[in-house]
User: Fold this.
Amino acid sequence: MSGNGLEFEKPIIELEKKIAELQSFTSGEKMDLNNEIQSLQKKLEQLKKEIYKNLTPWQRVQIARHLQRPYMMDYVKAITQGFIELHGDRRFGDDKAMVGGFATIEGDKVLVIGHQKGRGIKQQVERNFGCAHPEGYRKALRLMKLAEKFDIPIICLIDTPGAYPGVGGEERGQAEAIAVNLREMVSLRTPIVVVVIGEGGSGGALGIGVGDRICVLENAYYSVISPEGCSAILWKKKELAEEAARVLKLTAKDLLDLKIIDKIISEPLGGAHRDYEKAAKAVKEAILGHLQELKKMSKDELIEARYQKYRKIGVFKEPPLESSVS
Assistant:
């Protein structure tokens, strides 16, 4: 099992330790404890299924934030070939929290854009924990326009708690940069496939989140605000984040039921961090499947379908008109 076990994983961790101890004891003392080990391994598999198939929304948020979860560049290395990163927004600088570049998938050229959080404190600070600045979103749009020019499909990998909320970001037009991306992505004349691979927080996610197909990994989340932020605003208490995660309807299943996303991508039992290769294979299959469908559409059909897709999101009810009293 990976380190940094979560609170609800404690029974699994304890059982895994017990199995490891028996295996070590068997090899050291030359005793045959295979029957006991096999029995515990069966119990472990059953326990994993029971726990991971009945996760609460808050528990899925915790898995989405797992420090060993595969990040954007892990997927790029696993599913693409010949990735060439491009830098800068041609206005201010290069934002390392937002990575973009051209590559191929199974011989087809693609543009891959996504948030990169970084491993370890040094990289996390350098990548700003995946919280992009305005220049990150402007860089992303610059590259998307380039992909459109050469008729290259776009893949967006979302993994951010949200856009950088600091003074510098506001001074350089954070809200405007995200708003422009929303407007421009709606009319880009090339296929766009979006995959939420971890955290999908607020406008930081939406800034590269407009697409023809939206996929969310099984234990990822996509929300207008973080559970902690929602809890602090609604109830003035961050301690109610677990309840906020429930009411926000931020899990992949909730999003699919609400018809906000198009597909849930299955993860290895326990989360993508338990098996990078299997997780990457599932993401690759989903992307290729959607691209194959989208390439069959004309440019005009693509734009119209994308427009209608977003027009249909959300429902509302108008109250009945009250009869006027004379």
Remarks:
- The chain has 14 helices and eight strands.
